[in-house]
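Need C-alpha cells for this chain, all 342 residues.
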Amino acid sequence: MTTYRYFATASSVALTFALAMGFTSNSAAAQKLSLKRLTLGTNPAGSVYYLIGGGFTKLWQEKLKVRSTPQPHAGSSVYIPLVHNGEVTMGLNSSLDSAMSYAGRAPYTKPYRNLRAMARIWILPYAYVVKASSPYKTLEDLRGKRVVVDIKPNIPLGHSNRAYLATGGIREKDIVSVASGGVVHGLQMVQEGRADATNVALGMPQVRKMHASIPGGIRVIPVGKDGTDEFIGKEMPGMSILQIKPGKTRPFVKEPMKIATFDAYINIGKNVSAEDVYLLTKTLHQNWKKLQKDYPPLRGVGVDKLAPARNVVPYHDGAIRYYKEAKLWTAANDKRQNQVMK
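Here are the C-alpha cells for all 342 residues:
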C-alpha cells in the first residue's frame, strides 16, 4: 500500500512537472519573435531620440531575445523611406514628419504608405517665445516683426510655425520672415536681438537656460483665437492644442494658456508580421513605467495613453490587437483608423 501510494504520488508529481514544463515551453515559444534582428532609426547620437531609442532596443533585446540596435541618422526624415522599404524595422518620428511622409508632401517625393504607427511615446509642447522685456504678448503683436519661420534642418517645423501663426490670423506676408539653422540657433537669434520671436519645444533645457540668462527672462506667446485642434490640425496635420499651467519646470509660463503640441511615435513597417508587432507592443506597454523611471522624456505619456485616437498614419494590425486586449482601443480609435486609411 505504501509502495502504491509512493508511485501514485511520484507519477502525479512527474505529470504535474511535465505539464508545467510544457506550459513554460509554449509560453516561451509564444514570446519569440520571427524577426532575427531589429533596427530602430533615430536622430544622431546624443539626441533625445537616440537616448530613448537605446532604451527601447535594450528592453526588447532583454525581454524578447532579439538582437536590437538603435541606428542613428542625420534626421528623422532620412530613415522614413528606409522603414517604408523594410531596410530599417522601425523609427522614431514626430507626428509632423509622419503626416507629411504618409501623404507624400514635400520634401517627400512620394507617399510612404507602408508606414504604420505602433505607439505614441512623447508629447512635445510647442510655442513661440519672445523676450519678456519686449511689448509682444500675442501673435497679433508680432505683425511686421522679425519672426523665425523656417528651420533649415527641419522642414516640418517650418510648416508648424506657419500653422501656429495662422491661429492668430498671421500669415508669412504679415511678418518679416527669417530662417534659423536650428531650434537652438533660433533662441540665440532672439537672445542676441537678431529676431523678435522664435518657436521652441518648451521642455528643452536650452529654453530654461535662456530664461535664466536674459534679464527679465522670456515670455511664451499663446495660440490665437483660432487655436483649436480642428484648425491647427488642418493647417498642419499632426499638430493639436495643449492647455498648460505654470509650474516649477516652466518658470517662463506665468498663467494658464493654450499652445500647440505634437507627438513622437514609434513607426514600424507595414510588412512586419502582426504577431511580432503584437509582442513588441505588449512588451513596451507592460514595461512602460520602468522605462519612464529611466528616461524622463517618456514621463508625459501615461501608461494608458500609448494609442491616442489622433494618429496621422494607421496603427499596425498587431498593435491594434494588443491595444484591444489591454482595453486601450476605443470607438474613437476605430473612427480615426478609418479616416487615415483612406
